[in-house]
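*** Protein under study ***
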Amino acid sequence: MPAPGAPGPTGRTLEQIAPRIPLAAATTITQPGSYFLTANITVATGNGIAINSDNVTLDLNGFTLASTSPND
């Protein structure tokens, strides 16, 4: 029996295989999934992104999360 080779093409895009959810403002993530920033997020108080779920991937995508509060 021949050894298995490299996986073949599936004809599906990465977005179809593992959809990602864009974020452009402060928010709370409550559902599992893959999220990515589309802009810098700056908050004066509180959380920029609160993650209240298991199995979450957050890609900052080169952007930043920041606070202007002197206490943070």
About this structure: The radius of gyration is 18 Å. DSSP finds one helix and seven strands in the chain.
